[in-house]
Fold these 3 entries.
Entry 1:
Amino acid sequence: MGFVDKLFEKLGLIYPYKKEFVIEGKNKRLEIVRGISGNKVMLFNGITYSRMPYNSIYTGSYWDFFLPLAYLYKNPKILMIGLGGGTIAYQLDNLFRGKIDLDIVEIDKDMVEMAKKFYPGIKANIIIEDGANFVKGKKGYDAIILDAYSNLDIPEGFLSEDFINDAYNAMNADGILAINLTGGVVQKMRFLSYNKLLLKRFRHLFVVKGGRAMNLIELCSKDIGKMEIIKRLNDNMKIDNENKHIFEGYKRMSKNLF
């Protein structure tokens, strides 16, 4: 990442050196822009929803911290709710080369169109539907990634006890629900009550800090604890200079939400 891109990222900004694609609709503006160093981002109403560095599959930010989920299982089957520009799909494609069963549910058709522009080679089963409805009655997932946002808010349907129960029932016995938590003080206060609902079903809750971003990744595990998660990553994930920040983040995960 170039110096200017890093500076603007620290300030929470993206320098739109080149706009590559724009969709405007009611109450939304979707843009794909490329920074000075070549890094590409997708913006939703000015908020970064996806990032793709020009020289690495890793972003250094919260997207990376969902990737270990795929290393925890043999022949992983993963459901992702919320597509964004497809950063996580892009990363999983490159890391696993088709050896992963990935379903992605996205409610916004324009977002799907943007993702196919942002990452033209996307390899996943993309379903255009409300994720809270889709998960009802499903079975057999090893992990569910919840990264659904409207601006800076998780839609209400995903904060309900019904969704938590449906997600729990959709996963195998050692499944993990991984949730991207972000936003300001109001959003974070809502997450405290959300956690009480999660703890009614899940045996373990762990928090991983999402790299340079302020995001938190909450891991809601049906059965496996921290030591087993770390062991599986040690056994299955090749650690190198590019991805060691991910492994270190998991080693430091805690039970403290904030």
Entry 2:
Amino acid sequence: MTNSRVWRSGGISLRIDERTIAVDLALLAAIAILGVWSIGAGDFPLPLGEVLWTLAGQGEDASRFIVFGLRLPRLLTGLFTGMAFGVAGAIFQSLARNPLASPDIIGFDAGAALGAVILVIVFGASGTPVALGAIGGGLITAAVVFALSWRRGGTPLRLVLVGIGVGFFAYAGVDFLMTRSDIFEAAAAQAWLTGSLNARLWSHVETIAAGLAILLPAALVLRPSLDRIELGDDLAAALGIRVDATRIVAGLVGVLLAALAVASAGPLPFVALVSSPIARRLSGAGVTLVTSALVGAAVVAAGDLGGRLVFAPTQLPVGVFTAILGAPYLLWLLATQIRKGAM
């Protein structure tokens, strides 16, 4: 049980969950620690005092270049990407009532990756066109998955299985394009497909921040409806929820969040999959979009920092590190679902 209170003022009432607030504050503190540590770590390490002094607007010219020109854009891109993946995962897991229904498992990330790679290899694009290609690929893939999985009625398990199949098809398209490109295009695309925050600039931060500014409020507005859909479609309809319309709108928001994240840092494995379950376990609540966003940000920040430090001087892309951490969780989740008879 969660310890919650209701705040009322005039005709407005707001439920305040004390445990969720405490968890969110702890996550913010953890993200701040990881962020300062990440800014100070690297080939040219900066002591804690220098990092804080530089962030405050002081510091030497070299420190300001390292912090504001190189490491802070990388950190913010990673945090915003993790937030987008975390909320997208929470939305789809809620809609499908299945912890396996995250964008990286049901093919949406793969579709976004295919759309971006087409723009990179076929049209030689970069920057904003690649982001638009990722969004377009994610939307087309989502439309295909939902069309195939909900014909003549559907189940959450069918959504997951169809999504996995469509995801493999999309990655096959990526592999085909890679074999048809020259070595330089293939190398650039492969570095992005691995999932990396290297060479991120303020333009990347601005793009994903603008997307989050639109999509996160939309997701928060949908949160009460998602809570009721988790009770079952019939009960949600009895409570006044327009189930089909909510699925369409929430699915669109989730796909756009996932595609935006893929466009910013590549298809980081397992971030969307693990964020919502961790958030639910920490807060003890139902659909926790804010907590899921913070968990996603912390996972990406920790993965990027770990990839740079654990095997130093060799640096692993953040996508490799999140895959190393997420694969055992996926195996555990599959075993749990099989024991429950859900698969």
Entry 3:
Amino acid sequence: MIAEALAYFFERATAHARNAGYVHEQIALLARQRRAWAPHLARTREFIERVAATTARRQVVVLGSGALLDIPIAALAQHFRDVVLIDVFHPRVARRTARRFANVRPHTCDLLGAGTQGNDRLPRIRLDAWRSVFPAPDLVVSANLLSQLPILPLQRAGAGDDAEIDCFDGLAGADIPEVEGCWIWEIAPFGEIDRNSRTVVDVCAFRAVPA
């Protein structure tokens, strides 16, 4: 707990990222990563690397890059001339990793937006916020991002009960292409929350090609 508090204090972040809870969330995530996550992280990196190998080499944009736990940053830096990491907050470990590669650059952007529209409590994904700066990447990577975007803002607004979060459509009505891989992510093994239960998430990997 002391290490997490010090990390929070010394991290470089905007006031919005701190006030919205993104800094605390990312530091807590780094503290919780464990051996049980290794298969999920490896499968995610493998899929991203495989897709990248079949893509043009100019630019890749990573949405919600975070601490780069599930991003094969070395492979992306080798394949693409320009690697853009987009997140509302870039942890120290991610900034340090990015500095190892001349063609990797963090870009701070709130993909969700700070507010809502009208009386709708569900936040909107503001993809235009980054597309105005990077309009034509060869590949866009979203690793476990769309399903997580609404959770923290809704919880902080007092509107994030499980039913409301579950009905949030991160794909904005778009059809999901053919799934190319599925696996289980064991978020909390037996004994962490309760000795008789564990928390797992079904993960599906797919690639979407613009029409």
